[in-house]
Amino acid sequence: MTDREHLRDLLVRRSVRLGDFTLASGAKSNYYVDARTTTMSAEGQVLLGKVAYGTVLGSGLRPTHAGGLTMGADPIAYAIAHRSGLGGAVINGFSVRKEAKEYGTGQRIEGGLSATARCLIVEDTITTGKSTLEAVEAVIEGRATKDQENYSIAGRSLSRTPVADLLSLRDYYRTEFLREQRVERRNNGTGTGARICRGLADGLARYFTNEKTCATAARFRWGGWEPPF
User: Fold this and answer.
1) 48, 80, 122, 167: least CB-packed within 10 angstroms?
2) pLDDT tens per residue, the chain (229 residues)?
3) Residue 94 in 3-state DSSP?
């Protein structure tokens, strides 16, 4: 049995529950996956570290950090970080609080992300993707004040719009989306909310001029997900 198969069987045995459940998204389900009973177990941590770390390396991604919204993402990020520390490319962990703490440094993101960190967002269970997108937004917002307008890469000088300005643009489209969503609801679901989403994606894409920021542009292309607001 491979590590992936072993982890799958452990999840089924320890984490799958049958019954009537209300999910975080508000949706109803006749089963529930309490992944933490697996991901926080000693056996689960070992297997998760091997499987998740191998998956990251095999994907071609080269993140320096892995993390997400507490607490579902925490044991996954820590398992990846621990496995990476045993040999190979190091991937440090980080955690995103649901709200910034009101004491000490007042941080929302724990783990010491630098301005050049390449972040991989992880999650234990995904239904609508809301928690994942919330973590992505927190990372972007947390780095807005550290962002640079000009870069020098391989001897080439590149410039782009600061993330702070992109966040303002996002807020504008967020307001427009909510306004048109209200109109859609009054009109029994007919309207142009989808057009607003496409407009946001197209508008943001024009601001990006290099590979590093294209990934951020892709984050705004919600695809089949409904925006988290």
Assistant:
1) 167
2) 899 999 999 999 999 999 999 887 778 889 999 999 999 999 999 999 999 999 999 999 999 999 999 999 999 999 999 999 999 999 999 999 988 777 777 788 898 888 788 899 999 887 777 788 888 888 877 665 444 555 555 566 655 566 666 677 777 767 777 777 777 777 765 444 455 455 555 554 444 444 444 444 444 433 333 344 3
3) strand
